[in-house]
Design brief:
This protein has 262 residues and is α+β, with helices and mostly antiparallel strands. Helix content is 23%, strand content 26%. Helix 1 (17-26) links the parallel strand 1 and strand 2. It is globular, with a radius of gyration of 17 Å.
């Protein structure tokens, strides 16, 4: 059994539903995990996705903010959610496939502008969220699991356009990278994307503020696909669909893909 999965911060699923449909039609992954849906679950336009074969959805949502959804051609069941750091945000949802594999879809807090929890509450919330992720993974080490989502951290030097210039920019600070690394280690997770593409600059996000994002190419790899230790050898064919960042009225993120053979 082979499953191709995509993760994409869509930045409003209702506003960009046509782009979701474009992805479903042109790329046709078996499963699509969306973040920053900015919609209550009952307002997600699931009916627009069904004609492309996506008859199943597990989601958590809230009006105007956050929100995560898993769209699937394959039958799946709701496997719950976690409210890390007690924020009351729709930032995690899990779904279980018929073969027992659990997919975790995460939207980690962005963390605001200043990398200092004393003056920036959002940065503190981000660190607390990652700490509770770490503890949760440590308490129940994941098996037969895939973790995807906008983790809002670019951990490696070649995951950002300039390591030196971004060391004190939220998303690439040593403190955030260490917190993410601790969570990854606690769960025994493998970074599938970098296992497949170990060398070179690789980005999944380009700011709206850049007048020519493609030419400037000041990107960051904020979107991730991880596999539990028992699935790491099942993963292959990772890629970033960079072209989607150039679609009409795009998200500032591009979809990230991986395929798993079970």
């Amino acid at each position: 059994m082979s499953i191709t999965l995509a993760t994409w911060n869509i930045n409003s699923v209702r506003l960009r539903a046509p782009l979701v449909c474009k992805l479903l039609q042109e790329e046709a992954p078996d499963i699509v995990c969306l973040q920053e849906c900015k919609s209550p679950v009952d307002k997600i336009p699931a009916g627009m996705f069904e004609p492309y074969g996506y008859r199943y959805m597990v989601a958590r949502g809230q009006k105007g903010y956050n929100g995560v959804a898993i769209l699937s051609k394959l039958p799946l069941e709701d496997a719950g959610d976690m409210d890390f750091a007690g924020l009351g945000h729709a930032r995690h949802v899990a779904a279980r496939l018929e073969n027992g594999v659990v997919i975790h879809n995460f939207y980690v807090p962005a963390g605001g502008d200043k990398p200092d929890r004393e003056v920036n509450e959002k940065f503190g919330q981000k660190l607390d969220y990652l700490t509770e992720m770490r503890d949760w993974f440590r308490d129940g080490r994941p098996e037969k699991s895939i973790l995807v989502g906008d983790l809002n951290i670019a951990p490696r030097e070649d995951d950002v356009w300039s390591h030196k210039q971004l060391l004190r920019v939220v998303s690439h600070t040593p403190m955030e990278v260490a917190h993410l690394g601790d969570a990854q280690e606690a769960g025994g997770w493998t970074d599938v994307t970098r296992a497949d593409i170990p060398d070179g600059q690789l980005y999944s996000w380009w700011s709206y503020r850049s007048p020519d994002w493609d030419a400037a190419d000041k990107g960051r790899r904020l979107d991730h696909v991880w596999a539990s230790s028992d699935l790491k050898n099942a993963a292959h064919s990772s890629r970033v669909l960079r072209a989607a960042r150039g679609w009409e009225k795009p998200s500032d993120h591009a979809p990230v893909f991986a395929t798993f053979d079970f």
